[in-house]
């Protein structure tokens, strides 16, 4: 094989590797964003649950005072 062909094959291999790494990075970033969204949703749901529980307890504390 001529040196030009060898160099062209190396360049193509390097480009393919770069594209593979970039695709892997994009996949990783998408997974990270998905995980961040999942965790944010969990936090929001827990916050809502705690606020609801706090309101329920406040109403229970007020109930005897009204009697």
Please describe the topology of this protein.
Layout: H1 3-66
Give a quick precis of the structure.
The protein is an all-alpha fold and 67 residues long.
**Low-confidence parts lasting 5 or more residues at pLDDT below 50?**
none
Structural class: mainly alpha
Output mean pLDDT: 94
**Biggest sheet details:** none
**Beta strands, count:** 0
Q: Tally the helices: what do you get?
A: 1
Instruction: Give the % helix.
Output: over 70%
Report the β-strand fraction as a percent range: under 5%
Distance between the termini: 97 Å
Quaternary assembly: single chain
What would you call the shape? rod-shaped
Radius of gyration over all CA atoms, rounded: 29 Å
What is the element string, with H for helices and E for strands? Answer: H
Region (Disordered): 39-67
Structure explained in plain terms:
The chain has 67 residues and is an all-alpha fold. 96% of the residues lie in helices and 0% in strands. It contains one helix and no strands. The longest helix has 64 residues. The radius of gyration is 29 Å and the shape is rod-shaped. The protein starts with a helix and ends with a helix.
């Amino acid at each position: 094989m001529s040196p030009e062909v060898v160099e062209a094959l190396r360049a193509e291999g390097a480009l393919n590797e770069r594209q593979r790494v970039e695709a892997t990075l994009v996949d990783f970033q998408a997974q990270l964003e998905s995980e961040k969204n999942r965790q944010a949703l969990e936090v929001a749901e827990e916050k809502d649950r705690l606020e609801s529980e706090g309101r329920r307890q406040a109403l229970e504390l007020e109930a005897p005072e009204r009697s």
